[in-house]
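Hi R.,

Here's the chain you asked about this morning:
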Amino acid sequence: MFLANSPQMGPIKNILKENRDRFRTIITKSFQTMQQKVEDILRLQYEQRQKLYEEYSLQIMNLNSKLNMDADQVKKQAEKLSSIFTEHRMFVLQSLVLQKERMEEFKSLCEQYLEKLEVLKYSGGNSVAEELRLLIDTLEIKLLTVNRQQESIAARLSLLDVLLS
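And here is the predicted structure, written out as tokens:
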């Protein structure tokens, strides 16, 4: 306290008071500057977040619409494939039915062939010879008939020649 009341202390107090006021001003300005910088950074970050949000929202909406279009195309392709598969299945079923019918026809023909082979085996070849004889007899009868027809036509022509001359 001794120093506080001394006459030399007055100018020191003034200097200290001025220094304190100057430091307060500097600190206050520093805090205001810092506060302004923080507010600027926060505002800039907010604007950047808004911009990013808008860009990503637009990209997501575009992506969503593309996904919907792709899903529609996939659905159409699935329907086409299903239709093709159904047609192919019907074609295979029809082919199997047709093949079964042909196999049954072939089986029937083979059975008939085997039966005729058995008949031929037991007949000892007589049926073939008999068929040939019948064919020869039929041909002889046809030849005789044709011959007689030609003779009768020739006789008629001769009669006509005689009559017309």
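One quick note: The chain has two domains: 10-123, 125-165.

Cheers,
M.
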